[in-house]
Write a structure and sequence with these properties.
6-stranded parallel beta sheet; alpha/beta; Rossmann fold; 2 domains; 27% strand; single chain; Dihydrodipicolinate Reductase, domain 2
Length: 279
């Protein structure tokens, strides 16, 4: 059965998901809508598609009132934490399944609870890709035995440059000339101060001991060209250490290429009824 996909956000991840559907890499899927507040971004993306001709919206009320929305089976949020806050409750209220890329928004426990309640009531699903890290299944399997979780993220100044943290702290990461720890705190705090950079911290928190109880260290390294995530988990099961050194997306250094691939695989598993791995 072909599933109708609506994309919210036509940036790095939205584009790659659209191309994966259009090329047939994601089977049993069709793009029915491209939504972006910058309408020209949606038109530009549609012009590059060869086998899909989605409707375009920049007004959310028009979108959810449209026939295009009725034809949608799953909405993919690939825009921002603000988009999750603004749009996602309405999506699940209307019985549409949802894939969330800006997972940091779910650090808001009230929002998370509301989304889960509405999804359950309306018999739809919420999907969260693993993003730019690995080992999530293993962490979930021992979550009841975990004592502590630490995520250390190392990125270049360019990959972190627009984070609100730097305005608060009053310094420019591009001025750093050596590897420097710039932040230590909870994942719940980190995703607010680095909303486009450490969504993996929220994914890790949801899988393990919670976003509030997951600790994060952020390191700026002017000499790296990778986005590196090191996870250390301790508990009654023993110790788990995981390390991933990601190549940044060619079009956006803030996004790891693995995060793009993870989003594509998550949607592929939703749309392809023949795929059942680990569930």
């Amino acid at each position: 059965m072909i599933k109708g996909v609506a994309l919210i956000g036509c940036g790095t991840i939205g584009k790659e998901i659209a191309f994966a559907i259009d090329s047939g890499r994601i089977k049993n899927a069709s793009i029915v809508t491209l939504f972006d507040k910058v309408k020209s971004a949606a038109y530009e993306l549609r012009s590059k598609l060869h086998h899909n001709d989605p409707h375009i919206f920049s007004d959310f009320t028009e979108f959810i009132s449209s026939r295009s929305f009725k034809d949608t089976d799953i909405v993919v949020e690939a825009a921002s934490q603000d988009a999750v806050n603004s749009f996602c409750k309405k999506i699940v209220e209307n019985g549409k399944s949802l894939m969330i890329m800006s997972v940091g928004a779910l650090a808001d426990q009230l929002l998370l609870s509301e989304l889960l309640d509405k999804a359950s009531h309306n018999q739809c699903h919420i999907y969260v890709p693993t993003g730019a890290i690995a080992g999530i299944d293993a962490i979930r399997s021992v979550r009841h035995l975990i004592d502590s979780v630490m995520l250390s993220t190392t990125k270049s100044p360019k990959a972190l440059s627009d984070a609100p943290f730097f305005n608060m702290a009053g310094f420019d990461p591009s001025k750093l000339n050596q590897k420097t720890v710039i932040y230590e705190g909870s994942a719940a705090d980190a995703v607010k101060k680095f909303p486009s950079n450490v969504n993996v911290a929220a994914v890790l928190g949801l899988a393990g001991v919670g976003i509030e109880n997951t600790m994060v260290k952020i390191i700026v390294d002017p000499n790296t060209d990778r986005n590196q995530h090191e996870i250390t988990v301790n508990g009654k099961f023993g110790e788990m250490t995981l390390s991933v050194r990601n190549i940044p997306s060619p079009t956006n250094p803030k996004t790891s290429f693995l995060a793009v691939l993870s989003a594509i695989e998550c949607l592929r598993s939703v749309c392809d009824d023949n795929i059942r791995i680990g569930t």
